Amino acid sequence: MTGHTLEELGLAEAPLEHPLLYPGAWPAESGLLHGDRMLPLERLVYDDRVPVLTVGSNASPAQLRHKMTESGIGAPVPMVRARVRGIEVGVSAHVSRAGYVSASPVKDPRAARELFVIWLDAPQLTVIDASEGVPLPDGNFRRAWLPAPDVRVELPDGHVLPGAHVYVNRHGVLRDGTRARRRHPGDQHTLLTDLLGTSAALRELLGVTPEEFSARARGDAALRARATRLFAEHRWVTRSGLEPYVTGSFPE
User: What is the chain's alpha carbon radius of gyration, rounded to the nearest angstrom?
Assistant: First the structure.
């Protein structure tokens, strides 16, 4: 087996274990996640798998490894870096059980981002769905199919996918100070510092530092639920624009 270990690549720490590292380190290029190694890809399209567009920690090999290992899944996961138009990375309007505020996709026809497509087989898709709360009536995310040309997902060889799945937050996404949708900074310290600095009620609930926020939220479901309600009470919450896609059928 060739390639490099996640440790060698600086990709070994999972946000589920180190929440202030969210969204975790992403690979510099496409590759095949196989256990604790990243291997070269033999192809970019997998017709026997489902393409899932990632905007947060599902693009972190360590996070994927953590989720799969916990569920006893050892099959490799192809990760393809893609040029995506029509999707921006927003901020989820809820506090995760892991103690961070996660990323969430928002519809933005002007946006162009480098994101990862992970190609999942049926057992792997079940694992990721479960980790996002899809099977639960009150789960945080719903899986949606985003068709082209509404969203353009272009692979490194120029191939454009007919669409991709994405996880849409059931709670909506957060606004910024201008009332526009907030962009996730890709740094949990920056995001939590900003949110805490804006709300005395949030500081009273979860502390004055990102470390306090994460530790308190991680250990108390009631506090997480209260903080999530507080986002709405502050009128920080808006729709992602992707809600209409949630009700669409999922191609097999």
Answer: 18
